[in-house]
Automatic annotation (TrEMBL):
Protein's membrane topology: Single-pass type II membrane protein
InterPro entries from the UniProt entry: LexA/Signal_pep-like_sf, Pept_S26A_signal_pept_1, Pept_S26A_signal_pept_1_CS, Peptidase_S26
Gene for this chain: lepB
Enzyme class: hydrolase
Cellular compartment(s): Cell membrane; Membrane
Keyword Transport: no
Membrane-spanning ranges: 36-57
Cross-referenced Gene3D superfamilies: Umud Fragment, subunit A
GO biological process, any: signal peptide processing
UniProtKB keywords: Hydrolase, Membrane, Protease, Transmembrane, Transmembrane helix
Catalytic residues of the enzyme: 63, 99
Protein name: Signal peptidase I
Chief location: membrane
Family: Belongs to the peptidase S26 family.
Length: 194
């Protein structure tokens, strides 16, 4: 049997240093886990808010020019109260479209050959429209908006396909994503959506 030598005991200072290092590693690991958990929770909450309360949308196309242009990024608010003149986003054929509320349930919409819109016999004041046009209109005018729906039109009337066309028609409450509140991109156009 061979004689085994026991390793020498390290000095007390080295042991204390090693203990400090191990405690530091444990603290660092706990802090790192805590930070990661906090970031994951904050990200999950932000995603839920963005999806359920404030959907963020990117504008494609020219149907809302000059007020909203291709590439604008806007924040919308999910709610059920929409006024005439509000810009809303809604689902249509697996896409999200953006148009302006022109009339609500039960109201009568009429559009003359020059593209001026009348709701319940009164001409709408539409400062957001540069170019009035009848556009693609295959509905019978005057038209009464069905219950639980809103009549919408794009601001660029000559190119917008909207409630004037039977292919889109009036928008039901279930289709509506939200009311557009704020343009956040590009930064030089940051501000409320009118």
């Amino acid at each position: 049997m061979k004689n085994r030598q026991t390793p020498p005991i390290p000095p007390l200072e080295d042991l204390e240093e090693e203990l400090k290092r191990i405690k530091y590693q444990k603290r660092y690991g706990r802090m790192l886990r805590s930070t990661v958990y906090t970031l994951v929770i904050v990200a999950a909450i932000a995603v839920l808010i963005a999806v359920l309360v404030f959907p963020v949308l990117r504008i494609h196309g020219s149907s809302m020019t000059p007020n909203l242009t291709d590439g604008n990024i806007v924040i919308s608010l999910k709610n059920s109260g929409y006024e005439v003149g509000d810009c809303i986003a809604f689902y249509y054929n697996n896409k999200i479209l953006v148009k302006r509320v022109i009339a609500r349930s039960g109201e009568w919409v009429d559009i003359d050959e020059d593209g001026y819109v009348y709701v319940d016999g009164e001409k709408l004041d539409e400062p957001y429209v540069d170019d009035h046009a009848l556009g693609e209109c295959d509905i019978t005018l005057p038209y009464q908006v069905p219950e639980g729906r809103v009549f919408v039109m794009g601001d660029h009337r000559s190119v917008s396909v909207d409630s004037r066309s039977t292919s889109i028609g009036c928008v039901s409450d279930e289709q509506i994503v939200g009311k557009l509140l704020l343009r956040v991109w590009p930064l030089n156009e940051f501000g409320p959506v009118h």
